[in-house]
């Protein structure tokens, strides 16, 4: 259910209203509805929220909901798996509803009516409170990102946001209307980025459900003219909603990503929908299936992901030269995706038959290859058992091949170069003193983290053997017709 509509149903069916009616029966000016899914291997719920009657409090630089929260769900809500508002869990990198409500939103009473005024108000049961007043609703999506440069993390966040909006489209308020209607509400939807990570290549994708420019929290605070229009009009407050979306850390692709999943493209309609939305957003044609080659001898294209930071494939130029010499009829290209605009990356990857790289965010492009028509090669630091990209390949119908490389820390590489320059590479290392148990334990902990910073080295014969399997696996895709074993 992680990648099908059942995941959206799980969220829709586990919604809870957190604002409480006062002891005097006065209905709060705001409402806060949160949605929860319980499908992870840990006890943490995937949660997102929408609050109506939202305002912007410039003096405190906080968004405000006049909503005193209920302490606990009632017995029926608890039986349904609903949780108290205070039980929301923080997500990694200071993201998620818990963090946003703690740092950017004020909840509570404001200008509570006096008893004389309250007597004139109609007292209603909470279940009868309308979630909006007549008029055009406005929406402000509050975005707190993990970062801006890592494509995998960024896309997981944006995909989570699209699922948030889909659930709001599926769900109904007390008056029977959906919380969000895509075409009608997009002109009245705004995005406020709460972090200071900078734009990054995927920033504009946060506008999947908005036709308005993105505003950063910092700029909004410094320049009141940039405050989204709904907050500038007091009469619109009752129809202004803030949306705190699912964080990237709750994306289903993170669930059990260290285990092999028995997934097929038929199991992942939500992934297909997200891919379609990405291509439509950038107005890039989404091509499916094997290439419609004009000639059966059209070259196979191998794209190597050229990492320039950590986890470089050491000696990759020599390895790719050897690959080209073995397969002169194959186009072998090395690409630093970070230097290309995202639409250009999509076009390039659509022409790729075999995608190869060291474990890292570049392999996110697996999802943008022609579905069911390519091969993915992942070179992992030795001992790393991550299965996320293998599972992603399965859900997009690609063949997947992996190989292990030796980890080489940057300082080790510098030492190697120094020894080569001094002619001491064959010297026997000095004996090291015996280490304590504590030192060994600390070293094991550091060893577990090494793969994130280490470069990777793989012998030429092993690299070629790995690429042999991958390239030959696409020899007969579509109209291609090649012998796997030639004379």
Automatic annotation (TrEMBL):
This is EGF domain-specific O-linked N-acetylglucosamine transferase. Its EC number is 2.4.1.255. It is an enzyme of class 2 (transferase). PANTHER family: EGF DOMAIN-SPECIFIC O-LINKED N-ACETYLGLUCOSAMINE TRANSFERASE (PTHR20961:SF148), GLYCOSYLTRANSFERASE (PTHR20961). It catalyses: L-threonyl-[protein] + UDP-N-acetyl-alpha-D-glucosamine = 3-O-(N-acetyl-beta-D-glucosaminyl)-L-threonyl-[protein] + UDP + H(+); L-seryl-[protein] + UDP-N-acetyl-alpha-D-glucosamine = 3-O-(N-acetyl-beta-D-glucosaminyl)-L-seryl-[protein] + UDP + H(+). Pfam families: Glyco_transf_61. Residues 298-375 form the Glycosyltransferase 61 catalytic domain. The lineage of its organism: Eukaryota, Fungi, Dikarya, Ascomycota, Pezizomycotina. InterPro entries: Glyco_transf_61_cat, Glycosyltransferase_61. The keyword Mitochondrion does not apply. Residues 415-427 have a biased composition (Basic and acidic residues). The keyword Transferase applies. Keywords: Endoplasmic reticulum, Glycoprotein, Glycosyltransferase, Signal, Transferase. Residues 412-451 are annotated as: Disordered.
């Amino acid at each position: 259910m992680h990648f099908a509509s059942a995941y959206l149903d799980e969220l829709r069916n586990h919604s809870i209203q957190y604002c409480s009616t006062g002891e005097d029966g006065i209905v709060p000016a705001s409402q806060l509805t949160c949605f929860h899914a319980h499908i992870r291997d840990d006890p943490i719920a995937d949660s997102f929220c929408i609050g109506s009657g939202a305002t912007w409090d410039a003096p405190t630089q906080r968004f405000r909901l006049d909503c005193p929260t209920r302490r606990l769900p009632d017995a029926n809500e608890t039986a349904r798996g609903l949780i108290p508002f205070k039980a929301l869990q923080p997500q990694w990198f200071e993201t998620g509803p818990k963090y946003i409500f703690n740092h950017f939103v004020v909840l509570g009473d404001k200008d509570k009516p006096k008893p004389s005024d309250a007597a004139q108000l109609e007292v209603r049961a909470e279940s009868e409170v309308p979630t909006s007043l007549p008029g055009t609703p406005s929406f402000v999506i509050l975005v707190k990102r993990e970062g801006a440069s890592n494509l995998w993390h960024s896309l997981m966040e944006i995909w989570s946001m699209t699922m948030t909006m889909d659930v709001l489209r599926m769900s109904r308020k007390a008056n029977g209307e959906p919380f969000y209607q895509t075409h009608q509400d997009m002109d009245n939807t705004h995005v406020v980025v709460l972090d200071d990570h900078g734009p990054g290549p995927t920033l504009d994708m946060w506008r999947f459900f908005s036709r308005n420019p993105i505003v950063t929290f910092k700029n909004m605070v410094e320049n009141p003219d940039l405050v989204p229009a709904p907050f500038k009009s007091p009469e619109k407050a009752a129809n202004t909603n803030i949306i705190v979306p699912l964080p990237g850390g709750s994306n289903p692709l993170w669930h059990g990503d260290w285990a092999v999943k028995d997934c097929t493209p038929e199991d992942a309609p939500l992934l297909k929908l997200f891919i379609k939305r990405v291509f439509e957003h950038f107005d890039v044609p989404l091509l499916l299936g094997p290439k419609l080659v004009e000639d059966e001898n059209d070259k196979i294209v191998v794209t190597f992901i050229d990492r320039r930071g950590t986890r470089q494939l050491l000696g990759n130029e020599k390895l790719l030269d050897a690959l080209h010499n073995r397969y002169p009829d194959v186009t072998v290209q090395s690409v630093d995706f970070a230097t290309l605009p995202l639409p250009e990356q999509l076009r390039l990857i659509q022409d790729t038959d075999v995608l190869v790289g060291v474990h890292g965010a570049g392999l996110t492009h697996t999802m943008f290859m022609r579905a069911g028509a390519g091969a993915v090669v992942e070179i992992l630091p030795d001992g790393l058992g991550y299965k996320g990209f293998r599972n992603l390949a399965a859900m997009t119908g690609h063949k997947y091949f992996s190989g292990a490389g030796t980890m080489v820390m940057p300082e080790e590489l510098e030492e190697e170069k120094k020894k080569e320059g001094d002619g001491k590479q064959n010297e026997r290392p000095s004996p090291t003193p015996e280490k304590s148990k504590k030192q060994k334990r600390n070293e094991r902990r550091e060893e577990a983290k090494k793969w994130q910073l280490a470069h990777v080295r793989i012998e030429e014969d092993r690299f070629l053997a790995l690429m042999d399997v991958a390239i030959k696996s696409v020899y007969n895709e579509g109209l291609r017709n090649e012998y796997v074993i030639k004379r």
